[in-house]
Amino acid sequence: MADRQSSGEAYWKANLRIIIISLIIWFICSFGFGIMLRPMLSGIMIGGTDLGFWFAQQGSILVFLALIFFYAVRMNKLDKEFGVDEE
């Protein structure tokens, strides 16, 4: 019983670590690059517009989509590692 409980705690600790890292990356890209650092990024051009505007309009959304795929792949690996996968 204690082994199962410690395994469950390790699983949720690893899960929370993935979530926290993903949220930090999302926050940095959306709020940091798109709002706070936008004036500093205005001199760098990408796709016909400055990088700060690009992060505010498209970049943060693309990073968010990449994070969704990262989370799904990483959680599938974590589920298999702890034996709680659906397959």
From TrEMBL:
Coiled coil: none annotated. Residues 9-85 form the Sodium symporter small subunit domain. It comes from the Bacteria. The keyword Membrane applies. Keywords: Membrane, Transmembrane, Transmembrane helix. The chain crosses the membrane at residues 20-41, 53-73. Pfam families: DUF4212. The keyword Transit peptide does not apply. NCBIfam families: Na_symport_sm. This is Putative solute:sodium symporter small subunit. It comes from Salipiger aestuarii.
